[in-house]
Specification:
The chain is α/β, with parallel strands linked by helices and 342 residues long. 49% of the residues lie in helices and 11% in strands. α3 links the parallel β2 and β3. The termini are far apart. About 7% of the residues have low confidence.
C-alpha cells in the first residue's frame, strides 16, 4: 500500500490500542464502597502471599479474618495488625476444621461473640482466604497450598499425589462449597490462587496436576454462579520468592525422594540428576498481593491475573505454543536421566 495510507492505518491502530488501555485503566480503577463493612477471610496467613494480603487489606480498612495453620502464625499476625483483624486456625485437609471455620464466619457476620480454641496439628498444610459483605460473605480467597513432594513421576507414589491434592485442590473445593451460600447472598467474590503451572507442566509430580484442577474448578464455578451475581477470579503467579520456591527446601525434597528409590531407578537417573540449579525468583510479593486485592476490591475485576514478568512473557506465551515445540524446548534445557536415549 502507499506509504501515506499505511502510516495512517498504523496511527489509527495505535490510537485504538491507546484508547482501549485508557478505558481499561479507568474501568479497573473503580473500587467497591464501604470496605469497613466487608469481611475478608484469608487462608495461608502464616507467611507468604496470605500473610502479606492480610496485613495489606487490614490497612485498607477491610475486616480481615486470617486463617493460620499454626498458633505462632496467629500470634505474630495479631501483633502487627489492627483490632479489625481476627485470626482462626484452619486445616483445609479436614472437613471438620472447615465446618468450624464456616460456623465461625456465620456467627461473626451475625455479630455474635465466639471463643475459638486452637487445635493441635500433626501434618503440614496451608490455609484459605475469604472476604465478606454483611449480610453474607464478600469473598473467599483460596490461597492455601504446598509445593512438595515434587519430582519425576516415577519417583513418586499415589500417596504423594493424594497428600498434595488434599491441600491444593480438594481444600479449595471444600472451602469454597462450604461458604458458597454466604457468598451468593452477598453477590461476592471467589478468588482462587492457582499458578502459571496450571497452564503448562514443565516438571513432573502432583503440583501441576493440582493447579490444573484449580483452573478447571475455577472456570466451571465461574459459569455456574454468574447468574447469582458472584464473580470468580483466578490468580496465576509465576516464580516468586516464597518457602515453596526455596532452593534448600527443593533440594531436601529431592534427596528424600531419592533415598527411597529402588536401586534400579537410581541407576537409570544417576546421582547428577539430583543437582538443582538456583531458581530465578521475584522477591516482590506485593505484585501478587496487589492482584489479590484488586480481585477483592475492584468494581470490575479481571477474570485472570498473571503477576510476574516470567508469567506474562515466558510461561503463558509458551503455553500457547504447539506441544511438539514446547517438548523440544524443555527436553533440550532440562536435565536428562543417565540412560537417556535423547
Amino acid at each position: 500500500c502507499p506509504q501515506g495510507i499505511c502510516r495512517k492505518m498504523l496511527l489509527y491502530i495505535l490510537g485504538l490500542v491507546a484508547a482501549w488501555f485508557i478505558y481499561r485503566w479507568y474501568k479497573e480503577s473503580k473500587r467497591v464502597p464501604n470496605e469497613g463493612d466487608k469481611y475478608v477471610f484469608i487462608t495461608g496467613c502464616d507467611s507468604g502471599f496470605g500473610n502479606n494480603l492480610a496485613k495489606h487489606l487490614d490497612k485498607l480498612g477491610f475486616r480481615v479474618i486470617a486463617g493460620c495453620y499454626t498458633e505462632k502464625g496467629e500470634i505474630e499476625l495479631k501483633k502487627v495488625s489492627s483490632e479489625r483483624l481476627t485470626t482462626i486456625p484452619l486445616d483445609v485437609t479436614k472437613s471438620e476444621s472447615i465446618k468450624k471455620a464456616t460456623a465461625f464466619i456465620k456467627d461473626l457476620v451475625g455479630e455474635k461473640d465466639l471463643i475459638w480454641s486452637h487445635p493441635s496439628h500433626s501434618d503440614v498444610v496451608g490455609v484459605i482466604s475469604v472476604s465478606f459483605v454483611a449480610p453474607g460473605l464478600w469473598a473467599v480467597v483460596n490461597n492455601a497450598g504446598v509445593g512438595t513432594p515434587s519430582g519425576p513421576c516415577d519417583w513418586l507414589n499415589v500417596e504423594d499425589y493424594k497428600s498434595m491434592l488434599a491441600v491444593n485442590l480438594n481444600g479449595v473445593i471444600d472451602v469454597t462449597l462450604s461458604v458458597l451460600q454466604l457468598i451468593k447472598k452477598a453477590k461476592g467474590r471467589v478468588v482462587n490462587v492457582a499458578s502459571v503451572f496450571g497452564r503448562i507442566s514443565p516438571f513432573g509430580g502432583p503440583y501441576c496436576v493440582s493447579k490444573y484442577g484449580v483452573e478447571a474448578f475455577n472456570d466451571s464455578l465461574r459459569l455456574n454462579v454468574a447468574p447469582f451475581g458472584v464473580k470468580v477470579l483466578c490468580i496465576e503467579p509465576g516464580f516468586f520468592k516464597t518457602s515453596m520456591s526455596d532452593t534448600a527446601v527443593l533440594k531436601s525434597n529431592m534427596k528424600k525422594l531419592w533415598d527411597r528409590l529402588p536401586q534400579e531407578t537410581k541407576d537409570d537417573y544417576g546421582p547428577a540428576f539430583l543437582d538443582i540449579s538456583k531458581q530465578f525468583t521475584d522477591g516482590d510479593l506485593m505484585k501478587v498481593v496487589s492482584c489479590m486485592e484488586h480481585a477483592i476490591s475492584a468494581l470490575h475485576p479481571r477474570y485472570r491475573y498473571s503477576p510476574g514478568w516470567d508469567a506474562k512473557f515466558f510461561w503463558l506465551p509458551l503455553s500457547y505454543m504447539p506441544s511438539c515445540l514446547v517438548d523440544r524446548f524443555f527436553l533440550r534445557y532440562t536435565p536428562h536421566p543417565k540412560v537417556s536415549v535423547l
